[in-house]
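Hi R.,

Here's the input for the adenosine-5'-triphosphate complex you asked about:
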Amino acid sequence: MSGVLLEAGGLVKTWQARGRQVAALKDVSLAVAPGETLGLVGRSGCGKSTLARVLTRLTPPQAGSIRFRGKDWLSLAGAGLRAERRHMQMVFQDPLAAFNPRSTVAGALADPLRLHRLVPRERRAARIGELLERVGLPAGYAARSILNLSGGQRQRVAIARALACEPSLVVLDEAVSALDVAVRSMILDLLVDLQRERGLAYIFVSHDLAAVKAVSHRIAVMEAGEIVETGPAETVVRNPQSQAAKDLVAAVPRLVREGP
Ligand SMILES: Nc1ncnc2c1ncn2[C@@H]1O[C@H](COP(=O)(O)OP(=O)(O)OP(=O)(O)O)[C@@H](O)[C@H]1O
Ligand SMILES: [Mg+2]
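And here is the predicted structure with adenosine-5'-triphosphate in place:
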């Protein structure tokens, strides 16, 4: 883990909602190294999803800079942006919202392969089968409708679709929060395996400190639009400094805090 994959500085995002202003990001800076997982935690409404959306360019910030893979990420446009986008993928809490519900699994996975010209047409079906197997689904699921999957299966397809792009960074926003405990731990294990295999970096956003600690190298704690603490995952959980981190740690079971 050397160098910097993503570096954001001074991000500001204020939402305007019905005449009210919400300072969701006040002055946020962070860095992620290649192959690293940065966990992002904080109470509901502290700005985690806003930060995830700004980093992935789903929402423009009012101020700040982002360098990704050595490029000025916020100034990319047109073909340059399309080419670079595949390197940063996002997985949301509710994968159904991110899919065309009329699509089949194969259709959902074929889109990025075609769009980014990653695999020649005649290799596409085989690649889709490989991607499904990699996330623990039978290749035969390719023919299924997205609607005929369980939440956990759909989230696996969402991860397979992100992987189809061969990204360097995947931003996961509460990606396992809605899943039952067994499926959640399978998916967390899968993420860790994929990281070892491919040197993927993650930004793992969750209000669940236990899940964050299980996968993160470092943890950043957010409170009211600011990052109030960043450190190695063990250190933040065992010896939290900020009140926000102390509150989060106090809310998880002792076994998780103290580890094996
Ligand atoms: N599209 C939007 N329009 C207006 N306000 C928004 C919008 N999205 C978020 N906000 C506001 O910005 C603040 C931060 O919200 P955000 O969704 O980033 O928090 P969060 O940390 O992801 O919370 P949660 O843990 O509940 O998902 C909140 O006050 C929220 O109401
Ligand atoms: Mg959120």
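One thing worth noting: Residues 181-198 form the longest helix (18 residues).

Cheers,
M.
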